[in-house]
Design a protein that fits this description.
The protein is mostly helical. The protein has one domain: Na+/H+ antiporter like fold, CATH 1.20.1530.20. The protein contains 19 helices and no strands. The termini are far apart.
């Protein structure tokens, strides 16, 4: 496993270097490296690494969500509150409705199977979107109007909404008894419970850090460890039908620390920025290694056409969320583009319907089609979407000229204070 990990790191760093010089987002190369070394092509990755791939991807996702939380200011959230709420469900609803309408005619699926496919495809990818929004916040692109913050918050809530909807539809398709009203009410409960829990953890950590004053690196590692526990707690609670959006809870830790101790938050964000150098290699390379090219070929032209038409429907829903926001045409276009990429959620749940059909002894063809279209959506939207967001951020967002505390100065001030205390 160690050798496979070394291969991934070295090749991804080479890809990062060359693609950065060509102004192409490095994640495109990392996805390609993972796909190249994965079981579908060269098959050079150790099976033990692939076996723990889901855990590694989750840890990497936690790192970027912590960074997002440390850059998610209350002032920016206040500006974009209504739009973030609309973005949490409206684009996904529009995309799903398009797939439900066209899925039977284009792919031969039933309405229920088309609805299931819509739920698989409807989530935006936090793996692609979140790190790019954090980058724009740090570069002060569009931050005066809180645009990267809007996309961060909306995309995070979108994932919670879509995954809960997917669970409901999958249960109905399997013939399980479902309380639809209870399941729908679980969405806001899951969000509020997770945020409140994250706030409590963050406030407790502030008190502990101020009492014992560990170095910033130790603070970051402590927060990372606690966040991993939170995700496992979420899995434990969900198994007992207690809704808990663990990843939102992780973001809430960073948010409350930024709200209460801004210098500490920027200091921690800088540390997680260094951890992210390694974590992004793991996240994107492992997502790439999971891509099934045979399934993608199975989708065919009609699958590609449905994805593109559904993205057009999604874009209409995203645009409607920006009405009355005070954003100009370029900023609205940036938000629409930012809501296109898919990767993480589709890689995680795309095979779920097929496994259910195998377990229930149902015909497997619909599950194969759903998996094929999910894989194709990753291949199309992850690289092209990241390129489009990178271009849009540079050309459509205005620079924020207001003064901000920098992560570097926060680290220097904190480490200087730490050295004085040691003396």
């Amino acid at each position: 496993m160690a050798l496979s990990l070394a291969e991934l790191i070295v090749l991804c760093l080479f890809a990062d270097y060359f693609l950065s010089r060509m102004h192409i987002p490095p994640l495109v190369g990392m996805l390609a490296v993972g796909a190249l070394l994965g079981p579908q092509l060269l098959n050079l990755l150790d099976p033990s690494l692939i076996a723990v791939g889901s855990d590694l991807r989750m840890i990497a996702l936690i790192v970027i969500l912590l960074r997002a939380g440390f850059e998610l200011s209350r002032e920016s959230l206040h500006k974009v509150g209504l739009q973030a709420l609309l973005l949490s469900f409206l684009p996904a609803v529009f995309e799903t409705l398009v797939i439900v309408a066209l899925g039977p005619g284009m792919l031969g699926l039933s309405r229920m199977e088309s609805l299931l496919l819509g739920c698989v495809l409807a989530a935006v990818s936090p793996a692609v979107v979140v790190p790019m929004m954090v980058h724009f916040i740090q570069e002060k692109k569009g931050t005066e109007k809180g645009i990267p913050t809007l996309v961060l918050a909306g995309a995070s809530l979108d994932d919670v909404t879509v995954i809960v909807a997917y669970s409901i539809v999958l249960g109905l398709y399997a013939g399980n008894d479902a309380n639809l009203a209870r399941d729908l009410l679980s969405i806001p409960f899951s969000i509020l419970f997770a945020i409140a829990f994250g706030f409590g953890i963050g406030l407790l950590l502030i008190r502990i850090f101020e009492r014992i004053n560990p170095r910033a690196t130790k603070r970051a590692l402590a927060i990372l460890g606690i966040s991993i526990f939170l995700v496992h707690l979420g899995t434990f609670l969900e198994a007992r039908h207690i809704p808990f959006a663990a990843l939102l809870s992780v973001m809430a830790i960073g948010f409350i620390i930024l709200e209460k101790r801004e210098a500490m938050a920027h200091e921690l964000s800088a540390k997680f920025g260094k951890i992210w150098i390694f974590a992004q290699i793991i996240l994107f390379a492992m997502v790439g290694s999971q891509v099934d090219f045979a399934s993608a070929r199975f989708a065919g032209f009609k699958g590609v056409a449905l994805i593109l038409i559904a993205l057009a429907g999604r874009s209409v829903g995203t645009y409607l969320c920006t009405l009355g926001s005070g954003f100009n045409a370029k900023e609205k276009l940036f938000i629409v583009i930012s809501y296109l990429p898919k990767a993480t959620v589709q890689a995680a749940i795309g095979s779920g319907p097929l496994f259910l059909m195998m377990e229930k002894g149902m015909p497997l063809q619909p599950g194969k089609i759903i998996l094929a279209v999910a894989v194709m959506s990753i291949l199309i939207t992850a690289p092209l979407g990241s390129l489009a967001i990178s271009w849009a951020g540079e050309h459509l967002l205005s620079d924020d000229t207001r003064a901000h505390i920098s992560s570097l100065s926060a680290v220097e001030e904190s480490e200087g204070a730490y050295a004085l205390m040691k003396d």
